[in-house]
Structure prediction request, 49 residues.
Amino acid sequence: MDINILRIMVTALSFAVFLGIVAWAVWPANRQRFEADAMIPFDDDVKGT
Prediction:
């Protein structure tokens, strides 16, 4: 196996993983959870203090 073929395979695998993460992030079933998580910094309840 040539080193260039290995590099191509790693690049293609990395791109596929990236597309999987993007798909997971925009999946409609995850929307409510991400919207709730986005509001955490604005939560007025200070816990542990």
About this structure: The chain has a mean pLDDT of 90.
